[in-house]
């Protein structure tokens, strides 16, 4: 387990900035202590400094997950955000999308959000902006990328894709062997 390099930190913060904007600072400087990001086996973990000190005594081979996995670096060194980061992204999300109850299940199976399943969308959402997907009962379901801006969403046909799927809570069931 080691600190992130400059390039790795930039990649992680650019991806997080796509979803929560300048609220990244609120993730690091929290009222309940200082938190940091660490890299372990190509995965980025978010943990408190207290937990970091305790994890230092565990051998590297025995350490499974020192904190909350925020994502991983691919072989081409691109950062891919994981669904386990949803609990930390949802409270600070700048742009949100609410899906109708009928399309919740479709999204949780890994499909994109269609215009017909769109309940609400945050005003002034730009195209290709990171969004957090909620149910109509304000339960975070996952996150994705807006395929259309808010203005374009009003004019498109009902079968057009509005949000590209990135991750959802259904992955806990689908990929339970590979999630750490």
From TrEMBL:
One GO CC term, this protein: nucleolus
Chain ranges of the PUA domain: 95-170
Keyword RNA-binding carried by entry: yes
InterPro entries named among the record's database cross-references: NIP7_N (IPR040598), Nip7_N_euk (IPR055359), PUA (IPR002478), PUA-like_sf (IPR015947), PUA_sf (IPR036974), Ribosomal_synth_fac_NIP7 (IPR016686), UPF0113_PUA (IPR005155)
Pfam families documented for this protein: pre-PUA_NIP7 (PF17833), UPF0113 (PF03657)
Stored CDD domains: Nip7_N_euk (cd21146), PUA_Nip7-like (cd21151)
SMART domains: PUA
Gene Ontology molecular function terms on file: RNA binding
PANTHER family found in the cross-reference section: CYCLIN-DEPENDENT KINASES REGULATORY SUBUNIT/60S RIBOSOME SUBUNIT BIOGENESIS PROTEIN NIP7 (PTHR23415)
Protein name: 60S ribosome subunit biogenesis protein NIP7 homolog
Encoding gene per record: Nip7
């Amino acid at each position: 387990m080691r600190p992130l390099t400059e390039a790795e930190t930039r990649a992680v913060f650019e991806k997080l900035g796509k979803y929560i904007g300048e609220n990244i600072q609120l993730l690091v400087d929290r009222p309940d202590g200082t938190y940091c990001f660490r890299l372990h086996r190509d995965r980025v973990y978010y943990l408190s400094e207290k937990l970091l000190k305790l994890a230092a005594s565990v051998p590297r081979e025995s350490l499974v997950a020192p904190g909350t996995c925020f994502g991983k670096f691919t072989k081409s060194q691109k950062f891919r955000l994981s669904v386990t980061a949803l609990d930390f992204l949802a409270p600070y999300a700048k742009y949100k999308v609410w899906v109708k109850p009928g399309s919740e299940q479709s999204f949780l199976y890994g499909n994109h959000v269609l215009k017909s399943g769109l309940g609400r969308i945050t005003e002034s959402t730009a195209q290709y902006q990171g969004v957090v997907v909620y149910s109509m009962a304000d339960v975070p379901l996952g996150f994705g990328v807006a395929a259309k801006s808010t203005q374009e969403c009003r004019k498109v046909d009902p079968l057009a894709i509005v949000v590209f799927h990135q991750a959802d809570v259904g992955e806990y069931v689908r990929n339970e062997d590979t999630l750490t």
